Amino acid sequence: MSHKIAIVTGGAIGLGFAISQKLVNEEIKVVIIGRDEQKLLSAKHILGSLCTYRIFDLSNLTGIPDLVKDIYNEFGQIDILINNAGINMKKPFIEVTDEDFDSIIQINLSAVFAISREVVKKMLISKKGSIVNISSMASQYGIPKVIAYTAAKSAIEGMTRAMASELSPIGIRINCVAPGFIKTAMSAKALDSDPERKQKVLSRTPMEQMGEPEDVAEAVYYFCSEGAKYVTGVVMPVDGGNSIGF
Predict the structure, then answer these.
(1) I need a surface site. Which of 104, 109, 203, 225 has the fewest CB within 10 A?
(2) How buried is 38 (Cβ within 10 angstroms: 0-12 exposed, 13-18 middle, 19+ buried)?
(3) What is the pTM assigned to this prediction?
(4) Which residues are catalytic?
């Protein structure tokens, strides 16, 4: 086939959409996965003929094997997987219930494992492929009131290294991008309503500004490209220096 095939979970909005757009611009055919058909249709309209979509709730772990099989059967290959989909919950530690914790872990960690496992089974056929996980600054240092999200993203980074160690000898590279404070609708809503927190964010970011979704997309594409053919098991912060700021 003339085009590589990429799967981007949560690819219709925010960082996922920026990643999908970058891949399409590089002539990669993208399958975006999400729960909201209207958002998927809107993204496909913008991304054009190199984009297709699947309506799927990644909390349905038992349905993931059939999802991946369906995509593979349609395109005959899966070259790239971007594990971008995720949910967050801001709650004081002692108010987080077991159900709260499990729901965040299921989408942000268990689903990443399950879809990666099924995609790797297909990548093993061609003995090549690239998987990029999306982590967070929450895995770099402690942020209050996001305990489940932090646990999941910290685990994602450990899983990235373990997968890379096991799968890279077979030709499948695994890397991770850890975004800092990026200008998205979600972050804008959170920070614009809390000027004190926004100032704290900027004051400890050496570049003194928030990033753009395209900054994350460029990093993700690098890991997928031939330019990174000798790079695996890496966690790259894209945060304007926030993780090392004082």
Answers:
(1) 203
(2) exposed
(3) 0.95
(4) 149
